[in-house]
Amino acid sequence: MLKMHSVNKYFGEHHVLKNVDLSIKNSEVVAILGPSGSGKSTLLRTLNVLEEIEDGDILLENRSIIYKDDAQKKRKNPKQLSYEREEIGMVFQNFNLFPHKTVLENVIEGPVQVRKMKKEEAVVNAERLLKRVGLLEKRNKYPESLSGGQQQRVAIARALAMNPKVILFDEPTSALDPELVGEVLDVIKDLANEGLTMVIVTHEMNFAKDVADRIVFIDEGNILFEGSPEEFFSNNKQERIGKFLSNFK
Fold first, then answer.
1. Percent of the chain clearing pLDDT 70 (strictly above)
2. What family, per the record (predicted)?
3. pLDDT of 112-146, one tens digit each?
4. Where are the domains of the chain?
5. Residue 249: its pLDDT value, please?
6. 142 to each of 71, 104, 105, 139, 163, how far by Cα in Å?
């Protein structure tokens, strides 16, 4: 469904992603693990074309989301990019809700403005999704009145409202107090059980073990491991990964 081929990304002289090859299959849940600064979030942002790559290719359902001009890769124009961003949802670390809009207004914004859905239909869909994440009773509240966990659940409902082909989660619990983490992870687990295609950057090792079909470990911009959770957590012989996992015991 979603593929990266020989992707390179630089920030100035810093080579953040190094010839990355990665394929995400339909209905697969992939957890991206690695130390801080390893390139995890940058990898995710390149998949959603929030970061421009210097070299390589990214494909959604075998359609390149960048194009070649001579030997140089460039971004597509905004109209072309909007299609890709409609089909690839994103849940950020810090929620990114509109503070001046109610919960319901936040969820219907994308479907109405981007998908051109009728407002009445968008409201029905949004209320269904808010019920799904346990927040229907908060639909007329503003984000500032919600806990961090509730705001993140609204952000998940907002991403789902666009009916994307895949959702990317960038450390969805990193900004939460510890007691609020579980409520967000439970929602994501439910989505995984429903067969939603997801790529999740996380530091929650037990969550990754439980929910992921495949673990991808990245360090210094290189993918060092791809395999099942069992292979990663129980049978891994790589010294670098062993050192990483020792921090969570």
1. 92
2. Belongs to the ABC transporter superfamily.
3. 998 999 999 999 999 999 999 999 999 999 999 99
4. 97-163
5. 67
6. 48, 9, 9, 8, 23
